[in-house]
Amino acid sequence: MTADVQWSLSWIRDVAARVSERKSEFTTLDREIGDADHGENLNRGFTAVVERIDGLEQPPGTIGDVLKLVATTLMSTVGGASGPLYGTAFLRASKAAAVPELDGQAASALISAALEGVSTRGKAVVGEKTMIDAWAPAAAAAAQSAENGEDAAQVFAAAAQAAAQGAEETIELKATKGRASYLGERSVGHKDPGATTTALILESAARTVQ
């Protein structure tokens, strides 16, 4: 499958299915350092996204149209910090992907725009034990892949691998941002749930475009 509008719909459906399968895992991660609602919140949001996709009267014209629908739905249905953060990520990404198909450069731009959205909304930087610790290495890897002339599938694969590694590395970080920061040193040893679900989202992007 190429990285076209049909792919973007498959990507989001895959994210929804995998969030549903792993919501208990994400809630457990969040229970250690947060509000214990990350899994349920994301599952509610992506379930609503799929319902909206199913209810569309006309097929989306661009990938950006799909991502904007995701953004507005998450913002209106997901509580806590993850709704605004993911909503802003997908909204910025939608503006970078206002095309019917992505090449490698456009795929990289989509990921970079999502990172910019999360960074702007959350005012977080790398090393604070947040989803930025997955988005930032993903964007860097995607940019390098695109610079090497690789296609969208390869760009998403590189981003997914980097995001997964970034999420794993949050285990050893002390949280200095958000609710987890209240735990101080006790936050060390726990994987950040937002970074974990970021890795899932990018892994879904990579595997559905293959």
What features would you describe in this structure?
It is an enzyme of class 2 (transferase). This is Dihydroxyacetone kinase subunit DhaL. Pfam families: Dak2. InterPro entries: DhaK_L_YcgS (IPR012737), DhaL_dom (IPR004007), DhaL_dom_sf (IPR036117), Dihydroxyacetone_Kinase (IPR050861). The chain has about 210 residues and is mainly α. It has one domain (about 5-210): DhaL domain (Serine Threonine Protein Phosphatase 5, Tetratricopeptide repeat), CATH 1.25.40. Helix content is about 70%, strand content about 0%. Helix 2 packs across helix 3, helix 6 (about 130-145) runs antiparallel to helix 7 and helix 6 packs parallel to helix 8 (about 195-210). The chain is globular and about 50 Å long. The mean pLDDT is about 95.
SSE arrangement:
Elements: H1 5-33, H2 38-54, H3 63-77, H4 82-96, H5 104-122, H6 132-147, H7 152-169, H8 193-209
CATH topology: Serine Threonine Protein Phosphatase 5, Tetratricopeptide repeat
What's the main sheet like?
Answer: none
Query: How many domains is the backbone divided into?
Result: 1
Low-pLDDT stretches are none
Shape: globular
Distance between the termini: 6 Å
Tell me roughly what share of residues is in helical segments: 55-70%
Which class of secondary structure composition applies to the elements? Answer: mainly alpha
**CATH level-two architecture:** Alpha Horseshoe
Count of extended strands: 0
Put simply, the count of helices is 8
